[in-house]
Design a protein that fits this description.
The chain is mainly β. It has a single domain, classed as OB fold (Dihydrolipoamide Acetyltransferase, E2P), CATH 2.40.50. Helix content is 0%, strand content 53%. Strands 1, 2, 3, 4, 5, 6 and 7 form a seven-stranded antiparallel sheet that branches. Strand 3 and strand 4 form a beta hairpin. It is globular and about 50 Å long. 14% of the residues are buried.
């Protein structure tokens, strides 16, 4: 499943060479959501892997960006205990254009209608996934 999110690039780390066959680059986005007149800020750490590490070079901290990513998860067992890790693997980064909301948004599926925390624009449906609207389904 491919997801997208828009927000401000606040941390841009250098590429890490994990092994001779794997490299990654982590970055952090600031995401803001307006709920009933209050702004809540979240921070999402994402990563680029392999040949995608260089796509972050053209952006600066403070830039508004739109990131396409996949959720990747692994399971492993150590000393009889099962552990899990989840990564947000970015595969495309674009400058947030003039038609994008000014604030960040929540992840949304690419193939579904566009739900975000901004008012409806260009025919998009509005859906606020906050707890007080948990039963307010977008369909």
């Amino acid at each position: 499943m491919s997801l997208e999110v828009t927000g401000k690039l606040i941390v841009k780390n250098p590429t890490q060479v994990v092994s001779d066959k794997f490299r990654k680059r982590e970055f952090v986005m600031e995401l803001a959501e307006d709920i009933n007149g209050n702004t809540y800020t979240n921070f999402a750490k994402m990563q680029l892997v392999q040949n995608k590490c260089d796509i972050l070079d053209r952006f600066n901290e403070g830039d508004m960006i739109k990131v396409s990513f996949n959720i990747k998860g692994n399971r492993w067992e150590k000393d009889g205990k099962v552990n899990y890790i989840t990564n947000l693997d970015a595969w495309r980064i674009e400058a947030a254009g003039a038609g994008m909301p000014a604030q960040g948004g929540y992840a949304q599926p690419n193939a579904a209608p566009a739900y975000n925390n901004a008012p409806a624009q260009s025919g998009n449906n509005f859906y606020n996934p906050s707890p007080e609207n948990a039963d307010d389904l977008p369909f």
